[in-house]
């Protein structure tokens, strides 16, 4: 309890941090309580929301993927009327017949120019604040090796065009970001890191999918550190190694965002061994809502855990769970806290979450309220309390409203009820309750025994 309270003192640390949350346009097709649309978004949860995914047509112009994308854009961007500080970006990329459309875009100066002109027009028309590039990856999957340098040209030209657009039209400059690889061989083949980094507002490092059912033994989806069981190239399949490599190649720490997955990856055990590194063959059954073999959303994980055996991997600071022949490597509040501590110690620019729609966004499954993982991440990063959506009574003035007027930000005792305390933030008052049996002590600014 004391540790959680101390997090409240980190409010100032969040002032320059980003909490960027991705949403997907295919989540609307999940059944029943798994269906997600922009209407499910909490406008005060994240600093930025990125809408995935739009594509690029044969004329090098941005094009929607789903029949109702442009209607969903309106619903998403309407939240900026509720929270004017919220920023929205559009992810563009994916694949067409297995090939990234960026291969054709970067091939010639005129095709890059057509794409850039289309991007500015499309983003402005649909009220987005920026563009997120999703090319997995230059120099891979049918993309020629020269695309490493061509990607640099695209990023540089986009940045310049965004600057020109802002100046010429007296508009706020559009943001530019990208989803980028986490493994060293891919990074080195795909990017001129020192040349592209200055042009991005932030860089989303995909620090998950390190291990999965394509491998013959169990491994964690998103480990913080290497395991003593790792050998060969697998010693680099972890967050610490990935971020260190980006830094070594010249990326500024404050541009890098650490990826936080709201999903886990599954394996099918083939023996009585259930530990990390246990023999496996393929994935466990697909989840009933995500319906894709090999991974489960966090809300599907919440349904699995009560019958499972949960273990912690101390070396990697992440949990796994097993039941019968199913093995699951996933993230929980404890592992998110560990990653935030590591992220803060390494002075990164913040976090990006894949995805909003795989957390328990409705609070239906995990008995921990809506968005339990992302809300915990937000708290761990030191963001201030979210505004309440419940209007105060209009008939009688709330005596608590003036408690924090003129007071510095911080925690204060409530003389009328020692089991509660006040948090003041920019003049606003928030009432918190101590855990049962504890009272608030002003001497330590914490809840403790009487």
TrEMBL record:
Task: Give GO terms: molecular function aspect only.
Answer: chitin binding; endochitinase activity
Q: Name one GO biological process term.
A: chitin catabolic process
Q: Which PROSITE patterns match?
A: CHIT_BIND_II (PS50940), GH18_2 (PS51910)
The record's InterPro entries line, in alphabetical order, gives: Chitin-bd_dom (IPR002557), Chitin-bd_dom_sf (IPR036508), Chitinase_II/V-like_cat (IPR011583), Chitinase_insertion_sf (IPR029070), GH (IPR017853), Glyco_hydro18_cat (IPR001223), Glycosyl_Hydrlase_18 (IPR050314)
- EC numbers listed for it are 3.2.1.14
Claim: Cytoplasm is one of the keywords in the record = no
- Which keywords appear in this protein's UniProt record, sorted alphabetically? Carbohydrate metabolism, Chitin degradation, Chitin-binding, Disulfide bond, Polysaccharide degradation, Signal
Q: Where is the Chitin-binding type-2 domain?
A: 401-450
Annotated signal peptide = 1-16
Gene Ontology terms, cellular component aspect? extracellular region
State the family it belongs to: Belongs to the glycosyl hydrolase 18 family. Chitinase class II subfamily.
Q: Which PANTHER family match?
A: CHITINASE (PTHR11177)
Q: What is this protein called?
A: chitinase
Q: Which organism is it from?
A: Anabas testudineus (Climbing perch)
């Amino acid at each position: 309890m004391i540790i959680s309270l101390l997090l409240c003192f980190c409010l100032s640390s969040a002032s320059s941090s980003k909490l960027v949350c991705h949403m997907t346009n295919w989540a609307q097709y999940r059944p029943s309580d798994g269906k997600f649309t922009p209407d499910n978004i909490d406008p005060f949860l994240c600093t930025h929301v990125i809408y995935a995914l739009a594509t690029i047509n044969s004329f090098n112009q941005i094009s929607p993927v789903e029949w109702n994308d442009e209607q969903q854009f309106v619903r998403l961007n309407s939240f900026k009327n509720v929270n004017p500080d919220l920023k929205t970006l559009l992810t563009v990329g994916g694949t067409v017949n297995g090939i990234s459309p960026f291969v054709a875009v970067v091939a010639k100066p005129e095709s890059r120019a057509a794409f850039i002109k289309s991007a500015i027009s499309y983003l402005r028309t649909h009220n987005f604040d920026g563009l997120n590039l999703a090319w997995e990856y230059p120099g891979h999957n049918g993309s020629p090796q020269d695309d490493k340098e061509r990607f640099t040209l695209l990023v540089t030209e986009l940045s310049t065009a965004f600057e020109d657009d802002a100046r010429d039209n007296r508009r706020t400059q559009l943001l530019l970001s990208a989803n980028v690889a986490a493994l060293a061989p891919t990074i080195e083949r795909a990017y001129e890191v020192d040349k592209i980094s200055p042009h991005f507002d932030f860089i989303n490092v995909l620090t998950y999918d390190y291990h999965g059912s394509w491998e013959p033994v169990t491994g964690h989806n998103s480990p913080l550190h290497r395991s003593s069981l790792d050998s060969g190239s697998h010693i680099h399949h972890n967050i610490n190694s990935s971020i260190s490599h980006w830094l070594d190649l010249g990326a500024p720490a404050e541009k890098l965002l650490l990826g936080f997955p709201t999903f886990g990856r599954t394996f099918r055990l083939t023996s009585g061994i259930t530990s990390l590194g246990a023999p496996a063959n393929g994935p466990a059954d697909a989840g009933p809502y995500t319906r894709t073999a090999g991974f489960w959303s966090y809300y599907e994980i919440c349904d699995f855990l009560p019958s499972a055996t949960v273990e912690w991997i101390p070396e990697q600071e992440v949990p796994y769970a097993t039941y019968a022949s199913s093995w699951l490597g996933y993230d929980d509040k404890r592992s998110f806290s560990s990653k935030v501590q590591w992220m803060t110690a390494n002075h990164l620019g913040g976090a990006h979450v894949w995805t909003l729609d795989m957390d328990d966004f409705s609070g239906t499954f995990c008995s921990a309220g809506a968005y339990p993982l992302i809300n915990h991440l937000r708290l761990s990063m030191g963001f201030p309390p979210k505004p309440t959506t419940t209007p105060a009574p209009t008939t009688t003035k709330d005596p608590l409203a003036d408690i924090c007027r003129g007071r510095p930000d911080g925690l204060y005792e409530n003389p009328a009820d020692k089991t509660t305390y006040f948090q003041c933030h920019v003049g606003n008052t928030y009432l918190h309750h101590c855990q049962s049996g504890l009272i608030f002590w002003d001497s330590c600014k914490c809840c403790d025994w009487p």
